[in-house]
User: Fold these one by one.
Assistant:
Number 1:
Amino acid sequence: MKVAKSRTSLLAFLLAVAAGCSPQGLQSLEGKVSYQGGDFVFAGDTIELRSAADTSLRAFGEIKPDGTFKVDTLENGKVVTGAKPGTYEARIVISDDDYEHKKLAAKSINKKYLRFEASGFSVTVPSSAVTLTISK
């Protein structure tokens, strides 16, 4: 009986992983930021997601030089891959690690994309891929 229970638990875990779901119930989410308005200057900045159902629930992903990102969540003090299923609002957070980058990025983006309420971005988890288009 104990062996059958262990096999059932292992099977459930493997099915969850195969479906892209972590043991914490998180779904992997990847996407891309595209920019209309010139050179892409948002590498190193962050996509932040805020749950529509629970505004304290956030997920985030660093934007790579090609515009791609993978979403992580802070859960119980640890960064874990993915986001909880649901609908999220999204915004861009400009990095303040480099003053020149911050100045250039701030000049290159419409300020509405910096606010959840104004960005117009809605992301549903799970999703196969997300594309967020921003402009000047």
Number 2:
Amino acid sequence: MNDIFEKIGKTITETGKVVGEKTKQVGDIAKLNAKIIAAEHSISDNYFILGKFCYKKFKDSPDEEIAEVINGITASFESIAEMKAQLLSIKGVVKCQSCGSEAPVENDFCGKCGTKLVKPEPAVCECEGGACETEGDVICVASDEEIAEDTVQE
């Protein structure tokens, strides 16, 4: 009977050692995977920094090889700026050039820093007298000219 208990004890001890080794192995694998992920993030961050540097350096005169990418980035920046301007218009605010806070378009000075606000010029419609579909703060030159002509004819 002691033999059976010795065999059971030996089996449990050996199994415990195997489980311990496997646990250490899993831990080592997890640590290495975490280090690999950190290194990959570092590469991505450095690629981002390098890309930003290259864009700034070559945006005014890009090489043929990267011109399409540079122009795409520039177009995206311009598109974002237009959309941000539209957001400000929809919200009825202007952005202070000094502190960056938003102020109602009716204000002449920033409520946060007191700087005189620069107000955007209203957009001008380019319908050239055709079917005009101006909305919001857009000035239709053709409509103004038509109104002036109508006034003169009366």
Number 3:
Amino acid sequence: MTLFDYFGNSLGLEFYYRHPRSYARRGIFSIHEPSPTVRGVNRPMPKTYKKHSGDRCDPSENVRALTTIERSYIQTFPKDFKFTGTKTNLNQMIGNAVPVQLAKHVAQSIIEFKKDLEKDDLKQADKFGQLQLEMK
């Protein structure tokens, strides 16, 4: 899934800046490609940023970093989620977060698996030592 698939045209941009770990890496990405990992830092594009061979376009005024809130949407936080803390703390929280919808899916899968354990077919498999998961 790309940022465009998720946001559509609501960002008002086609390219955005994500601060690279080193300037040997690209920093400009297209909304038509999957998002790189959301990190715990969010910096504007330096005025002295030089185009990397992997950048999707030339650095210009039309390229900006995603806002803290936009980055939270990539992590699937709901639009009505209320963040509290400093901007630095918020960026760290968002960068360290497990995407909300991923966590929801994993939790639902565990609940379904637990229900399936109560069925005879999985209890039978457990008798033969094929399942070693204990849920309480």
